[in-house]
Design goal:
39% of the residues are buried. It contains 9 helices and 4 strands; from the N terminus they run E-H-E-H-E-E-H-H-H-H-H-H-H. It binds glutathione.
């Protein structure tokens, strides 16, 4: 089964959560946006699909199109043994992913607190205020929640859910990567208070398929067009 991933070609963004799951699964996929004419194909799908996704990323599987990162991962997790099989475990994993989505949206809002369609330069003052609050209150609060989940996981596996890796482990890894890129000072400080999250991040980076992916040209470097942007004035 081959998958078609549709996402913007120059950023990790939310597409990266899907890429990491597909890579860990060893799945066969095409990153359509990065092919020639890929964006035009993506826009045509959004314009004409019977179930049009609101925004990328979306995944095409046969004739089915799935939008929303958390829904895509729900699907991939079930298909590729990256989620618990029991319904309660599946819902718990999905709940964690939706919370990661909230955390990611707030990271985006640090540099775009007023408007998605406005330039960063037009909202710098508000971005300074928003980032200060994100660094001081939100990063520690979210990381503490993930730390608690790993601690309370009865299996003691160091994973968020159950005794083996699930897609939320990959997503948390990506969030930590993003925080370390965007807010290196604040993220390092907060991670000292969340040693299990830090260890989980390091363990994911060492997984053979993830390691190979991170070293490959398929991994787009972080940059200042994506969700996690490094503006030194927003860190501290
Ligand atoms: N909740 C959606 C958000 C999707 C989203 O905001 N996609 C961004 C790129 S990361 C986009 O292209 N947005 C265009 C828009 O909102 O108009 C998800 O998690 O997939």
């Amino acid at each position: 089964m081959s998958y078609e991933l549709y996402y913007w070609p120059t950023i990790q963004g939310r597409g990266e959560f899907v890429r990491l799951a597909l890579e860990e699964a060893g799945a066969d996929y095409i990153d359509v946006g990065r092919e020639s004419e890929g964006i035009a194909v993506m826009m045509r799908m959004m314009d004409h699909a019977e179930h049009p996704p609101f925004a990328p990323p979306f995944l095409k599987v046969g004739e089915t199109i799935i939008g929303q990162t958390a829904a895509i991962l729900l699907f991939i997790g079930a298909r590729h043994n990256l989620a618990p099989k029991d319904p309660a475990g599946g819902l718990w994993t999905h709940q964690i992913q939706l919370t990661i989505a909230d955390f990611v949206a707030e990271a985006h809002d640090t540099h775009h607190p007023i408007g998605v369609g406005l330039y960063y330069e037009d909202q710098k003052e508000e971005a300074l205020k928003r980032s200060a609050e994100y660094r001081k209150e939100r990063i520690p609060k979210f990381l503490d929640w993930f730390e608690t989940i790993i601690t309370r996981n009865p299996s003691g596996s160091g994973h968020l859910v159950g005794s083996s890796l699930t897609y939320v482990d990959l997503s948390l890894f990506q969030v930590v990567e993003g925080l370390l890129y965007a807010f290196p000072k604040a993220a390092k400080r907060a991670l000292k208070e969340a040693p299990k999250v830090s260890a989980q991040h390091d363990a994911v980076a060492e997984r053979p398929r993830i390691k190979a992916y991170l070293e490959s040209p398929r991994r787009i470097p972080f940059n200042e067009e994506g969700i996690f942007r490094h503006y030194p004035e927003l860190d501290g």
